Amino acid sequence: MSQLDTVNRILDAAEVLFAERGFTETSLRTITSTAGVNLAAVNYHFGSKKELIQAVFERFLTPFTENLDRELNRRESQAQLQLEDLLQSLYRVALAGLAREGRDPKRFMRLLGLAYTQSQGHLRRFIVSRYGASYRRFAGQLSDALPQVDPVTFYWRLYFMLGATIFSLSSFDAIEAILREDFGAESSLDETLARLAPAAVAMLTAPDVGAG
Amino acid sequence: MSQLDTVNRILDAAEVLFAERGFTETSLRTITSTAGVNLAAVNYHFGSKKELIQAVFERFLTPFTENLDRELNRRESQAQLQLEDLLQSLYRVALAGLAREGRDPKRFMRLLGLAYTQSQGHLRRFIVSRYGASYRRFAGQLSDALPQVDPVTFYWRLYFMLGATIFSLSSFDAIEAILREDFGAESSLDETLARLAPAAVAMLTAPDVGAG
DNA sequence: CATCAATTAAAACGTTTGTTTAAGAGCTGA
DNA sequence: TCAGCTCTTAAACAAACGTTTTAATTGATG
């Protein structure tokens, strides 16, 4: 087993277990025994548990933001500012790009949800410093497509949209199971994104009552 | 110090610390030293850490659902099915009711977010079994106010709405700090709810493209 | 084949965790 | 006043945690 094997086996196991249980609830012993490697391998290859967590996110977020940036470049050169298209860029191009590389987009959203809600200060700092530029660029193009919306209102709605997206997609399997039981209706991720995009657009473009 | 004092001091400390750090990241020793009581008091009065977590939620959710049920009763007797009013019931009556009883609605939303995202199976079961009826009743009235929306679409949008609400309100302080820095605009919870309600309405009533 | 660095392995480290125990204190009612 | 119950206290428990150490093993290079 080469070094690269060991590192990837650890990342694979950690990614699945973190998404299932959270960071604190997943011990290094569970990760290493699932991966079939020695306990000390984590500290040897990654340094610490914190750095392993960051590495798991790096493996997800780097291709994701690369896909997103490519799409934002394409859009910028064409000066298109269609709102629904922009969300489709986020939802389809970036997520489908992940899927094409063999990474589960649902697991990605689940991890992203954890990054927001589990109070891991180091992780938030890591993500902001590493991927904050792409996020601000996307938010900027989104804001440009909504010139009629007051900036403060826009940013609140951006967080509403993020919440709706991260929350529902990170709990996708649970919600899907409930709907399947109650309505016998199977839902795919693509189908859910096709529901989410127009709902998000409606929320972003709602008449601004100008609270405050 | 009476027994009731000890119990309440523990609940007060646990509520704040859980909301700040999460369940696993908060030790019983931190809770009891913050509360100024003996370590063993938690196991004596509550039985275990899990039951303490449930007790914290019970103290929040019981008055919240009571307020909500009262409002739903009032609406049912009047046969009003105005969508925006219904959300205002949830947002203002229930949350403002909490505030009137001295309980911080922001902390409540933060805890509710944790309940969804931190994988505490026992807590989810506790909440569903105890407060599921009120939730289904609210969802039912909301569904009745949207007769034109396909049931499966409705339920997905319900989760989108829950996500937007829980996510943005549970991170209220963090978001507010960012907006204050970037725009110098202070945001109150009431103001944010006044932004959230119409955004949620717009999302729920968006044209149903009928995905699937 | 011998050498040397990189990697793996097993074991132990010191902390921290939730929980339990056993003794003490404080109050109540007879 | 004293028995009896409730509650608090201090101490200890075993288990689990992340990390470190030291030795064995591997694989490439001279």
Explained architecture:
Two copies of one chain form a homodimer. With 212 residues, the first copy, chain A, is mainly α. The first copy, chain A, contains ten helices and no strands. Chain A binds a DNA duplex (30 and 30 nucleotides) through residues 1-3, 6, 27-29, 37-45, 48-49. Chains A, B: This is TetR/AcrR family transcriptional regulator.
Rg of Cα set of chain A: 19 Å
Arithmetic mean of pLDDT of chain A:
91
Q: How widely separated are the two ends of chain A?
A: 62 Å
| Low-pLDDT residue spans of chain A | none
- Assign a percent range to the helix content of chain A: over 70%
Structural class of chain A: mainly alpha
- The ordered H/E elements of chain A are HHHHHHHHHH
- State the oligomer: homodimer
Identify the biggest protein-protein contact and residues per side.
A-B, 53 and 53 residues
Shape of chain A: globular
Counted beta strands of chain A: 0
What is the beta-strand fraction of chain A?
A: under 5%
Domain HTH tetR-type (chains A, B): 4-64
Pfam family, one (chains A, B): TetR_N
Protein name (chains A, B): TetR/AcrR family transcriptional regulator
Keywords (chains A, B): DNA-binding
